Amino acid sequence: MKWWQIKKRDADLEREMRSDLDLEEEEQRERGVPPDEARYAARRAFGNTTLIREQTHEAWGWAAFERFLQDIRYALRRMRKSPGFTTVAVLTLALAIGANSSVFSVLNAIVLRPLEFRNANRLVEITSLKGGKPVGTSPPDVKDFAAESRSFEKMAVYDEWTKNVSASTGGEHAEELMVGLAPRELFEAIGVQPLLGRLFTEDEGIAGRNHVTLIGESFWRTRFQRDPKVLGRTLTVNDQPYTIVGVIPDAIPGWINAGYNQLRPVALWEPFLPAPEVWSEQSRGGRGYGTIGLLKPGVTIAQAQADLARIIKNLAATYPVDRDMGVEVIPLENMRSGDLKPMLLLLMGAVGLILLIAWSNLGALLLARNITRQREFAVRKALGAGRVALLRQTLAEMLVLAAMGIGLGLAMAWGTTRALRMSDPGHLPQLLALTLDWRVVVFTLVAGTATCLFLGLAPALVSTRVEAAGVLKEGARSSAAASRQGFRKILVTTQIALSLMLLVGASLLIQTLEQLENQDLGFRSDHLVHGRLYLPPTQYPTPESIDEFSDRLTERLRALPGVRAVSITEIYPPSDRWREMFSIEGRPISRLEDIPSTVFGVVDANYLRTTGIALVRGRDFSESDRERTLPVAIVNQAFVKQFFPDEDPIGRRIEVGAPRRLLADDEWMGSERRTVNIVGVMRDNRDQGLALPVAPQLIGLFRQMPPPVNSGFKDLLVRSDIAPEALETSIETQLNALDPRVPLSEAETMTAYLGELTTVQRSTSVILACFAGLGLSLAVIGIYGVIAYLVAQRTQEIGIRLALGAPRSAVVWLVSSQGLRMALAGVAVGLVGTILAARGLTGLLYGISPLDLLTLGSASVGLIAIALMACALPALRAAKIDPMHALRTE
Amino acid sequence: MAKQEPQRAAVLQGTLDMLILRTLLYGHAHGHEIGKHIQRTTNDFLQMQHGSLYPALHRLERQGWVTSRWETAPDRNRQFKYYRLTEKGKKQLVIEESRWKQMAEAVARVMWPAVEES
Questions:
Q1: Cis peptide before A139 (omega within 30 of 0)
Q2: A532 FRET partner, CA 20 to 30 A, in A202, A287, A380, A503?
Q3: How many other β-carbons are positioned within 10 Å of the β-carbon of residue A10?
Q4: Is the pLDDT of residue A162 over 90?
Q5: Is residue A343 a contact partner of residue A844, using CB atoms and an 8 Å limit?
Q6: Triad A269, A272, A278: Cα angle to 5°
Q7: What is the C-alpha separation between A620 and A617, in angstroms, rounded?
Q8: Is B30 on the interface with A (CB under 8 A)?
Q9: What does the alpha-carbon distance between residue A658 and residue A592 come to, in Å, rounded to a whole number?
Q10: Which of B13, B50, B61 best probes binding to A when mutated, by most A CB atoms within 10 angstroms?
Q11: How far is the alpha carbon of B106 from chain A, nearest alpha carbon, in Å?
């Protein structure tokens, strides 16, 4: 028999017993017994029907289950009768579980979950280090690494470019997409098999044979509707025809090339740079490529690291550009978490604190509830309920509570992860993999149930050990109750301490954000639009054609209504990654290591006017600085401070590019050099990002620079009088009118762009602030609960005090001092905790110390004030106690 | 829930099962009839309430030793739940019978050794 048939079976049994009773009654009557008596006689002959029914149910073998159902029903009934308790308990549990599983899901997606590659644990990223900072690799170095190393099975150098891609042969409807350049080995190392067609062959890496492409699955789907006959068709990439030779799954996530912060996933691949000069000796210093290595089985990261360090040391003996270079082998999964890891760990820590607060709150709540239920337990025990039965019921209640809390919590976590995945995958492609992992669900189930069972059963074990007579006589004022109150006080103190830590953390992060956003950037970020242009070399092969395009676009855009200034540039604040070596005329340099470098960039004559960077000395660039006039440059104040501390920089001559004697092939200038004259000094503006100090910077005019520097990669800046968003369409229209084959990409306002730079900090502060608020409200509920309970316990005593003439203010103080004591203790513990945790925070803060006295002080004072407010209500209620009433009721 | 002495219940239960199975050997019967039959046959020596038959009957049914069906009684114009012995039940009756016999003999040997000797 199955348990769902129990109801039917029970009806059947009922009918069977009924028929038996009726028959007995009939027989009794037939024997001449009067009808009334016959019924009783029949009952006597039959026995106790309820008992028989119970025993028969046992015989069916489902009795334990039926009892369990009964316990659940009873638990539900009890919970309905105390909706306040139920709501608070379930919500506390749900919030703690929801917040924990959400944060854990994110952590799981970005840090913990193993990579979904076949050889995930053997895959590494290799980068050269300059001054301890990763700078990427150069192909000649990688060639030598691969040839001489003993630790690697495969090594592949790769790169990613944004290119204008069109699915047609004519190049119409071009779209700017991320194009990867990689040799066959990259796919083999990662373990990617083509869905259709084949991978690149060895000789497709040679110029002339390289016009083949592997398209990604999503590109195949969106452009070709998964057409199986796509092989052999031709795409136009930067005006060049490329034949599709294969389709590969989108298995290579965008974060793999995180070194460039180009986090858009790659749409299609071409063979790695076929240009022979990339592999030539002059390119050894041209670092910035990504390299993925597949370790031989059993080789550790440290062994591989030592292996490559040995090779680079040998290389340095032969090639001066490799001098002072380090090399680092990074497990590929570390690339995924990138700079998000510290923030995530901070959030995980914070959410852990929340869980602790929720636990202690729930514990206090259940403790209080069990104390009030002692009388009920005693009564039931007196009526014959066994201890096991009482425990079983408490257990059922806890399970129901846990189930509701976990259910709600998981629903919250599911909603949060979904919302996160939908919100902004473009900037954090790691979040595309964000799901409510089964591990998270299991973790939640176990944690939630264990919490409830532990917190519910521990007090229940104590309270079911009640001596019925004792409790019934004394009421609830036993000494045991008082000691449990002590435990509650400890719980509340802990909550206050944890809340303080959260509060300080949130406050520090918010101040960091404020510092980042409201600092003086050195330029005007309002009313400014930024976009990117790419002029393909097939149409703009010479510097002159690029200059001409720039002039004509500037002219068109400047004519737009509302536009105040237009600048075409290759850099823009607040972060230029471009660094260039240089030498100052009259200061000879003899060693490669002594060549100074500066943040560098090329712009047009309108750059300062458009960005709003102020000129401090000398003159601005002018329209009359042309290709054939004297090359000019402007430096920032940091440059003057470092290189001309006691001299006038105006008129000094600077050679851009490493001195040819020491390094013939410059990373950016190649074999070209250009000497520029400093004509002006501009105000310092952020050039290394929002959080780093301003570095020396030198800017020149691209029209006065040689071809490798005056490239087809241009940025567009437009300053307007009107709302800048309104301009984006008209800018695009003008660009289209000028040349439809040049798309405008990443057009957005500077304000929005700056906002993106602080996304991680902003969302972390918001989440942390929510956590702090949550923790705080839990702590307030905790304090209130304890104080209110104490007042209820001491009503009689307070009544006596009042009757003996104690002033009401003394009563208020008597009660609030209890809360104050807990708050002070909590704050003290919390401050110690904050100091201990401070070191972990330092790296995440900007412009503020993790032990900022003002922050610590105001958070402490604020918390104490809030604690006192939580005491106020019960304290005032205590002061209003009517002595006569209080003395009579007990 | 009232409690029975477990030992006594076990002995009684075992015996009751055997008595029910033996009664059904004559043919199908409903609970009331079984109870009445046992009572009558033992000359009311086994004073029992019919109600206590039901847990036993349901247990036997769960073991597959008896089956049940609602049928109209020939003498009264309404339905009763009739129990029937199954093949498995017949085998079980033999087992229980021999076990009971052994037990009775063992008890007898202890209780009346002299009789045994003479």
A1: no
A2: A287
A3: 15
A4: no
A5: yes
A6: 150
A7: 9
A8: yes
A9: 9
A10: B50
A11: 30
Rounded Cα distance, A518 and A751, in Å: 12
| Two structure tokens written together for A853 | 């006295």
CATH label of the domain that carries residue B74? 1.10.10.10
Dihedral angle sign, alpha carbons of residues A509, A515, A517, A518: positive
**Per-residue pLDDT tens digits for B31-67:** 888 888 887 887 666 666 777 788 888 888 888 899 9
Read off the pLDDT of residues B85-117 as tens digits, 9 standing for 90 and up.
Answer: 999 999 999 998 898 889 888 888 888 886 544
Q: Percent of chain A having pLDDT more than 70?
A: 92
Nearest CA in chain B to A19: B80
Give contacts of B78 with chain A, Cβ < 8 Å: 19
Min Cα distance A105 → chain B (Å) is 49
Taking each helix axis from N to C end, the angle separating A49-60 and A6-30, rounded to the nearest 10 degrees, works out to 140
What's the alpha-carbon Rg for chain A, to the nearest Å?
A: 38
Answer yes or no: are the C-beta atoms of A58 and B58 closer than 8 Å. Answer: no
DSSP state of A321: G
Q: What is the largest CA-CA distance in chain B?
A: 58
- How many domains would you assign to chain B? 1
Per-domain boundaries in chain A: 3-61, 65-117+340-476, 132-323, 480-521+750-890, 540-740
A45–B54 C-beta distance less than 8 A: no
* Any domain includes B2: no
- Nearest CA-CA distance, residue A470 and chain B, Å: 26
> In this complex, do A20 and B59 lie within 8 Å of one another by their Cβ atoms?
no
The 3 state secondary structure assigned to A184-197 is HHHHHHHCCCCCEE
Q: Give the structural domain span for B19.
A: 7-117
C-beta separation of A576 from A530 below 8 A: no
The number of residues making up chain A comes to: 890
Q: How far is CA A640 from CA A635, A678, A680, A827, in A?
A: 7, 11, 11, 49
Asked if A46 is an interface residue toward chain B (Cβ–Cβ < 8 A), one would say: yes
Q: How far apart are CA A792 and CA A874, in angstroms?
A: 9
Alpha helices in A479-537 (DSSP H): 479-518
Residue B1, in any domain of the structure: no
CA distance linking residue A795 with residue A799, whole number of Å: 6
The answer to whether A640 and A681 have CB atoms below 8 angstroms apart is yes
Evaluate whether residue B46 is within a structural domain: yes
CB contact under 8 A, A23 and B76: yes
Report chain B residues whose CB lies below 8 A from the CB of A13. Answer: 54, 58
CB atoms within 10 A of CB A248: 23
DSSP A662: T
Query: What is the dihedral sign for C-alpha A355, A356, A361, A363?
Result: positive
Q: Name which of A610, A635, A632, A637 is nearest A621 in CA terms.
A: A632
Q: Say which residues have a Cβ less than 8 Å from residue A823's Cβ, sequence separation at least 6.
A: A496, A783, A863, A864, A867, A868
- Report the residue of chain B nearest A53, measured CA to CA: B55
B24 domain residue, yes or no? yes
ipTM (interface predicted TM): 0.78
Contact A448, A405 (CB under 8 A): yes
Contact between chains at A19 and B2 (C-beta distance less than 8 A):
no
- Give yes or no for a contact between A444 and A354, defined as CB atoms under 8 angstroms apart: no
Q: Is A609's pLDDT higher than 90?
A: yes
**C-alpha torsion A141→A121→A205→A315, nearest 10:** 10
The band of A824, judged by pLDDT with boundaries at 50, 70 and 90, is: very high
Phi, psi of A319 (to 5 degrees): -115, 115
Give this prediction's pTM.
0.65
Q: Per-residue DSSP letters for A363-421? A: HHHHHHHHHHTHHHHHHHHHTT--HHHHHHHHHHHHHHHHHHHHHHHHHHHHHHHHHHH
SS3 B72: strand
